[in-house]
Specification:
single chain, about 350 residues, alpha/beta, eight-stranded mixed sheet, 15 helices, 8 strands, GDXG_lipolytic_enzyme, AB_hydrolase_3
Length: about 350
Amino acid sequence: MHSHDSVFKYIFFCNDILHLVVVIKSYIFESFYIATEKVKIEGFRQLIIFQSLSTNIDGFLLFFIDRVHFYILLFFSFISGQTAYDFLNRWTANKLGAVVVGIDYRLAPQYQFPVALEDVLSVVRFFLQDNILAKYGVDPSRICISGDSSGGTLAAEVTQLVQNDPEFKNKIKAQVLIYPGLQAVDVLMPSHRQNEHGPILSRDMAIKMGCLYLTKDKALAQAVRENQHMPHGSRHLFKLVNWSTLLPEKYRRNHIYTEPIIGKLNSSYPVLLDSRLSPLLVTDSQLEKLPLTYIITCEHDILRDDGLIYVSRLRNAAVNVSHDHIEDGIHGALFFMTSPFYLNVGIRISDKYINWLEENL
């Protein structure tokens, strides 16, 4: 039995009952005061806009990008009816008087990179228009992009792209990234080794899902498992994700750093060098342009080190960064904060998220 098994059981069953009751009452009470609007943009699948009925003009705009990666979670979502993300967006809209835009982007493997990114980017650009902000009573100086897991990846990518767009530069005040995946260069970081078997997101599952976002060629997944997937001409990027220098010492432990092996894969995937896939691959000068940032990482998460390294690099670039590390946290914790689980750590993460938004926007 893996050591994570006992941690996983502990996290699920040791919930704070009093906190649970308070949260359930909050969800039920606050959901009555939310208006929802479903819209489509240029044939886009669907957006859901959550807005408090008590929202006054000059509220803030929040884009929340979520993603359920796993087949097992898709089953759970049918059990639950309304998803945890729907609850979170309603709660955020009502508690903070915000306009929250939930983005339903197209999914791999049917739609591969960069379709999801383009979907999200088109929505953000649409809502950043002055007339649209005015329509929803949004203060244009209070706009935030947030997301969890691969939604956090997309949030980071979109924020970088918007900051480099002359038309929309500096329109984003803040970004919130919750246990995001931020690079596809090195898949043997300490967190990959420590959390190889999960909980929730195993190394093998992460590699399979990540590769399907790019191609159906199984050779890529095999090369990634062995950390031999990077193409020739990529070595200069390794310093941008080098955990032996960028990861805080307590997380390096006794692991020994070895560079990814280049040029072993017969097929070439230049997309692996693209910062639109791996936000950690942008230069320090590009990072300097980024807005106020809040990052949440979880100890028992294969993606932990991506977030930790981003925190280090953003601080080195003098970006204002807040960071919370959840010692008992697991990947996907937000998904489990509602029925039938009411996972305490998921509830705590949602509390931290909303409190940070309230204090900083």
